[in-house]
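User: Can you predict the 3D structure for this chain?
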Amino acid sequence: MEHVNRFIIQCGEAANRDELKVCLFSSSLSGSAFTWFISLPPNSVITWADLEKQFHKYFFSGVHEKKITDLVRLRQCNDESVESFVHRLRDVKNKCYSLVLDDRQLVDLAFQGLLPHIKDKYASQEFESLSHLVQRISDQDINAFEPKRAWSKKVSFVDEATSSAAWRSG
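Assistant: Here is the predicted structure, written as structure tokens:
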């Protein structure tokens, strides 16, 4: 509602002509709102009333909106790269329409969702942004996403009774 009202005010005199509002509306959108707009089926918006109705239906029905809890619960999957995880986190963040987070808060959320062995390895480092986090972890080493395996040594066991009998008879 606020976005539409702000858009109409910014249109000035053009706000009196519905066809101009329909043409100009996309330039006021960004992120998930712009993605929604460009994914509308062809000819699904004819009038300003159509566009306004679809915009409100999609963004203010509450069905598609995500919450901070959705972001906090996100975890990197075992077979998922840091880059893919951060992309997924950004997608969820873009659906948190009323949530405002600065870069530092978003990086903290992303870091908390990383696999434990990655968090352990990079816990002492600071990241300025999500892209910095992805770049730093991806640049460090190619195997950053695989947990370290515990060292093990194969040992052959010899049955004491059998080896003692063989030693005495020999």
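DSSP finds ten helices and no strands in the chain. The CA atoms of residues 55 and 147 lie 45 Å apart.
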